[in-house]
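Lab channel / #folding
Pinned by the channel admin:
"Please post every new chain as: sequence first, then the structure tokens as a reply. Keep commentary short and put observations after the output so the thread stays searchable."

First post following the new format, from NK:
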Amino acid sequence: MLERMKISIKENLLLKEKQIERQRELVAKRDARKNEDFNKRELAAKREARKNDVFKRNETEKKKIARQDEDYRKHESERDFHRKQEYRSHPENLENERLKKHSSRQNKLDIDRCYDKTVKSTKRKNIDFTDHEKKLKKKRVQGITLDACIRNFKTKINDGPTYICTSCEQTWFCDSVVNSKTVKMTTPANMSHCFTNFKSVQDIEWICHTCLNAIKKQRIPRFSIANKMGFPQRPKELNLYPLEERLLSLRIPFMQIRQLPRGGQLSVKGNVVNVPVEVQPTINSLPHTLEKSGTISVKLKKKLEFKKCDFSENVRPFAVICALHYLMRTSDLYKSSGIEINEDWITEIAKINEEEIHEMKTIVQNKRITKIRMIQIMTPIISVK
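Reply from TO:
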């Protein structure tokens, strides 16, 4: 019994000595860890030791045993929180952490996509599965019931080609364009000049699939404005009404347009007659005086002998003559047409206008004088009453 007691006392003493030594080592390590060089050396030594699988396994087992204590877990979580907070206080570390998370998420998405592709490719080898998939796609696009199909059709035909591409400025349907906001984020800087910031439907900048495919390949789209394929702006001189355009056109096409029985679309029936027209008599017949230079009514006929007219509209003579001047300056077709414009008509109009304005002023003054005289005559009559 005495021997056993002695052995137990010795063991207790040894344990106490080990605990004291352990505490001394911990205190010494705490003091040493205040030095950054010591921390770096210790970290490098641990990394080197963890290459050994046995050491790594023993370390994980020790951590598992230690984490069974709640106080140790709380202390470990607080320590990790403060360490992360200190690490994230530097903007470079924060950016590196964000990039790592983004890359890990992207890798996970790529793995999931590859897995889905492999699963679907194996399933699509079965004919029944492919037929079922096609039917589901048709139902999703067209609708499950007949009413849903009609509703989808009406909603689709309501929107016409009103979506304008920001690159080529052509009009497209809704299915032929995408929002350019997401495209701009991935577009390189040398292709940014293909976007004109033009917004159309829903105040959104759209881009067509044709231009998008070219930009993805880092090529300028064929019909892009950056490729000098834009339409020139229409000059103010050519803002004419339909009949005013017919008066200046060198040729007038006559055709018979009828409505089709199904769908209600318009179609041309019979021959198209292209009639050459001399613009000179038309211009000479337009009035240039102030009384008639506002608007005049014009009727367009196939022949002057006919009673029925094909088109009638009010025409602005001054706008027609200004448009003719512009076309004679810019168009080679009109220059070679043999049209002659009287350049003295402007001075003649100015003289006639001055005379007519003077006459109108005298008429207005005479009317005022007659009114004043009438008032003077009527005032004694009113006072007598």
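NK: Confidence is low (pLDDT under 50) at residues 377-385.
TO: also worth noting, The first strand starts at residue 163 and ends at 164.
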